[in-house]
C-alpha cells in the first residue's frame, strides 16, 4: 500500500502529471524552478525560515573556490535535509560494476577489440544490478579517468535510490526508454538522446519501455563541458540551448527505502524511511540534463582532406593538461561527404588517446560490417587501427560525388588514459575473436613504381 501523505503530495503529483516532461533549456544555465508556488526564496539563499517548512541546502559540484566561470552549485529547498537521507552504511557487492584501477592479471588489454551487443538475459535487472563494466582507466580515488559500462535494465527501482560520489554519468541509450527520477526533477531518455547525471545527485531509474540497453561513461574527473569552437565561432556542433534540465518535482513518500552509494569504487547501502527525492524548489547551475543527439550540427571538410575526429566532439571533460581531455564524447552521425580527391573514411592511425566506440544505430563508414548497433570496439593507446579492406578498397576506388552518409550514429569515449578490460569484457561479453583479422586482406600495393599495383 502506498503510504503517500498530505496535501503537498497531492500538489506534487498534480504538478508531475502535468509537467513531468517539462524541461528548461540551456547548458550550465543558472536555473530556478519550484514545484509549489512561493517555495523558492527570492533574492537570497538562506532565509531564517523557508516557506512550507522546507530546509535549505547547498549541493556543491565544484570546490567553493573554483573560478567563477566554472563554479557550480545548486540551492535545494527540501522536505528533509540530506542528512536524513542516509543512515549507517554497510558495504554491498555489485560484482560487475568495476572502478579503476582494475587491472586483471589474466586479461590482455593490449589489442584491438570489438564486441557484439551484450545480450539480455532472462534476469530481472535494475540500473544497479544491470550495469556491466567493460573498461576502466585512471584511478577513481584520485578522481582521474573513467569507466565504460553497458547497462541491461529490465526492472524499475522501487523504493531504491542511488548516487555516485565517484563520478558523473553520461548515459547513451541504445534500446528502450528509461525515466530518471532525480532530486532535481524527472528526465525521460530514449535512444538518440544522452543524459548527464552529476556526481552526488540522488535518483531512481524506472523502465518505461524495456528491455533497455545502452552505454555509460563514468567520468571520475572534472565535469563535462562544451568544447571550445575556436575559429568555428559561436555556432554549430552542440549548441547550449539544446540541452534540457528538468523542472522541480518532489515526492513526499513515507516508505522503507534503500539508498545505495558508490564511493571510492565501493558500494554501500543505507536504509531510510522515506523518499529522498524531496526537493520542492531549487536554483543553481549544478543539475542533470539531457540532449538530443539529432540536434548536433556536424562540421567537416568542404574541399579536400578531412579534419581530426575532434571536430565531432559533443562534450569534453578536461584534464589538467590543456587540450588533452580526461574524456571526449565524440559523435559520428549522418553527414554529407563532398571532399575531392580524398580518402574519405577515417584514416589509418595510432593515437596517444584510447578510443572506445559504441554503435547506436546504422552502419559505421570505416567498418561496413561487424560493428553493429549495441556493439562496441576498443582501440587502446598507441594501437594502430583504421578501415578494413572492404572500406579501403571501396573508398579508394569510389567515384567521388557528393554522398550522404545516412543511417549512421556511433560515438566514442576517448580518454588520455589507457583503458583496461574487465574480466566481464574479456571473458563473458560477446568478444569477436576475429576482429583483428579485418585488416588481413589489405594488400601491399607498392612495387617501386609511382603507380603502384592499383591497376594490376
Ligand atoms: Fe581512431
Bound molecules: fe (ii) ion
Main sheet?
A: 10 strands, antiparallel
Report Rg.
24 Å
Q: H/E order of the elements?
A: HEEEEEEEEEEEEEEEEEEEEEEHEEH
Can you give keywords for this protein?
single chain; 456 residues; mainly beta; 10-stranded antiparallel beta sheet; 6-stranded antiparallel beta sheet; 3 helices; globular; disordered N terminus; binds fe (ii) ion; dioxygenase; oxidoreductase; HgmA_N
In words, what does this structure look like?
Residues 1-9 and 14-19 have low confidence and may be disordered. Strands 1, 7, 8, 10, 11, 12, 13, 14, 18 and 24 form a ten-stranded antiparallel sheet that branches. A six-stranded antiparallel sheet has the order 6-22-21-23-20-19, with no helix packed on it. It has a four-stranded antiparallel sheet with strand order 2-17-4-3, with no helix packed on it. It is globular and about 85 Å long. The chain has 456 residues and is mostly beta strands. The protein has helices at 6-19, 389-397, 423-428, and strands at residues 23-25, 31-34, 55-60, 73-78, 90-92, 112-115, 131-139, 144-153, 160-164, 168-182, 185-189, 193-197, 203-219, 243-246, 254-263, 266-274, 279-284, 289-292, 313-318, 325-337, 354-362, 376-379, 403-415, 420-421. The protein binds fe (ii) ion (FE2). The site of fe (ii) ion has 5 residues, from loops. Residues 295-446 form the Homogentisate 1,2-dioxygenase C-terminal domain. This is Homogentisate 1,2-dioxygenase.
Amino acid at each position: 500500500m502506498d503510504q503517500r501523505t498530505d496535501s503537498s503530495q497531492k500538489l506534487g503529483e498534480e504538478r508531475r502529471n502535468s509537467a513531468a516532461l517539462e524541461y528548461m533549456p540551456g547548458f550550465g544555465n543558472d536555473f530556478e524552478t519550484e514545484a509549489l508556488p512561493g517555495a523558492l526564496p527570492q533574492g537570497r539563499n538562506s532565509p531564517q525560515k523557508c516557506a512550507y517548512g522546507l530546509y535549505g541546502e547547498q549541493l556543491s559540484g565544484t570546490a567553493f573556490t573554483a573560478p567563477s566561470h566554472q563554479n557550480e552549485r545548486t540551492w535545494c529547498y527540501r522536505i528533509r535535509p540530506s542528512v536524513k537521507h542516509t543512515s549507517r552504511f554497510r558495504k554491498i557487492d555489485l560484482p560487475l560494476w568495476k572502478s579503476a584501477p582494475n587491472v586483471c592479471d589474466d586479461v590482455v588489454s593490449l589489442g584491438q577489440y570489438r564486441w557484439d551487443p551484450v545480450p539480455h538475459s532472462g534476469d530481472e535487472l535494475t540500473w544497479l544490478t544491470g550495469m556491466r563494466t567493460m573498461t576502466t582507466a585512471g584511478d577513481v580515488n584520485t578522481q582521474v579517468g573513467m569507466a565504460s559500462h553497458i547497462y541491461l535494465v529490465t526492472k524499475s527501482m522501487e523504493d531504491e535510490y542511488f548516487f555516485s560520489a565517484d563520478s558523473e554519468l553520461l548515459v547513451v541509450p541504445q534500446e528502450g526508454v528509461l525515466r530518471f527520477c532525480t532530486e532535481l526533477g524527472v528526465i525521460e531518455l530514449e535512444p538518440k538522446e544522452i543524459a548527464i547525471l552529476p556526481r552526488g545527485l540522488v535518483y531512481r531509474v524506472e523502465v518505461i519501455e524495456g528491455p533497455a540497453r545502452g552505454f555509460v561513461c563514468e567520468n571520475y574527473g572534472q565535469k563535462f563541458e562544451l568544447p571550445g569552437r575556436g575559429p568555428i565561432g559561436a555556432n554549430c556542433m552542440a549548441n547550449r540551448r539544446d540541452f534540457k534540465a528538468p523542472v522541480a518535482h518532489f515526492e513526499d513518500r513515507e516508505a522503507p527505502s534503500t539508498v545505495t552509494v558508490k564511493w571510492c569504487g565501493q558500494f554501500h547501502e543505507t536504509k531510510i524511511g522515506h523518499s529522498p527525492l524531496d526537493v520542492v524548489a531549487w536554483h543553481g547551475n549544478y543539475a542533470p540534463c539531457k540532449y538530443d543527439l539529432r540536434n548536433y550540427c556536424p562540421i567537416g571538410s568542404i574541399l579536400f582532406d578531412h579534419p581530426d575526429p575532434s571536430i565531432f566532439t559533443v562534450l569534453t571533460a578536461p584534464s589538467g593538461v590543456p587540450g588533452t581531455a580526461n574524456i571526449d564524447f565524440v559523435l559520428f552521425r549522418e553527414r554529407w561527404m563532398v571532399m575531392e580527391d580524398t580518402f574519405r573514411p577515417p584514416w589509418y592511425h595510432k593515437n596517444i588517446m584510447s578510443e572506445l566506440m559504441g554503435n547506436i544505430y546504422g552502419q559505421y563508414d570505416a567498418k561496413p560490417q561487424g560493428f553493429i548497433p549495441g556493439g562496441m570496439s576498443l582501440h587502446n593507446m598507441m594501437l594502430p587501427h583504421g578501415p578494413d579492406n572492404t572500406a579501403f578498397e571501396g573508398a579508394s576506388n569510389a567515384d567521388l560525388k557528393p554522398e550522404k552518409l545516412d543511417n549512421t550514429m556511433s560515438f566514442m569515449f576517448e580518454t588520455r588514459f589507457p583503458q583496461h578490460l574487465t574480466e566481464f569484457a574479456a571473458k563473458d561479453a560477446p568478444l569477436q575473436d576475429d576482429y583483428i583479422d579485418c585488416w588481413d586482406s589489405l594488400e601491399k600495393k607498392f612495387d617501386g613504381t609511382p603507380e603502384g599495383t592499383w591497376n594490376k
